[in-house]
Description:
The protein is mainly alpha-helical and 196 residues long. The chain has helices spanning 49-65, 67-71, 76-91, 102-120, 130-141, 147-163, 168-174, 188-195, and strands spanning 9-10, 23-24, 27-28, 30-31, 34-37, 40-43. A two-stranded parallel sheet has the order 1-4. A two-stranded antiparallel ribbon has the order 2-3. Strands 5-6 form a two-stranded antiparallel sheet. Strand 5 and strand 6 (40-43) form a beta hairpin. Helix 1 (49-65) runs parallel beside helix 4 (102-120), helix 3 (76-91) runs antiparallel to helix 4 and helix 4 (102-120) packs across helix 5. The longest helix has 19 residues, at 102-120. The protein is elongated and about 60 Å long. This is Endonuclease-reverse transcriptase.
Amino acid sequence: xxxxxxKSKVMVCSERVNDAxxxxxxxxxxxxxxxxxLGATLHEDGSSTVEVRTRIALATxxxxxxxxxxxxxxxxKAKHKLFRSLVSSIxxxxxxxxxxxxxxxxxxxxxxxxxxxxxxxxxxxxxxxxESVRELxxxxxxxxxxxxxxxxxxxxxxxGHVTRHDSLSKTILQGTVEGKxxxxxxxxxxxxxxxx
Length: 196
């Protein structure tokens, strides 16, 4: 196997170290703050907020490309199956590694509600609640797992898979590092906030 120095990048994920110089054949590899690996964007801070936004943007673009299908007279059940297979799969790619924050969860729910409204031809101007939209979907296609629930289920399944095996992934995921933590005294400013 040969490593290409043109395609190789270096990314530092540390609070203490900001710089790393790695060379191959006396040529320094480029230091980057983010890069794309297997279709997912990795960031030096380890957060997945930008990755989720990117996935939502890609899924929105795929949804928009299928606009003629959504406006056609085919049944809602067929449209919903197409949405789940062609659009949802783009959104949920790599979701097992996402860190779900409240903002991230609301973005995923908003995307799904927007798409379902478009499939049902319900405008926001019609003042139909999201709960009513869900009830309509249930009436047409039966019980369906929301996208956010799918993401959470896949995250949990991946966690179970990783923790059943002794591997580097398990060590990283559980944060088990040899040695002992250094004991420290609490900072005064933090203690003052507790008293208030």
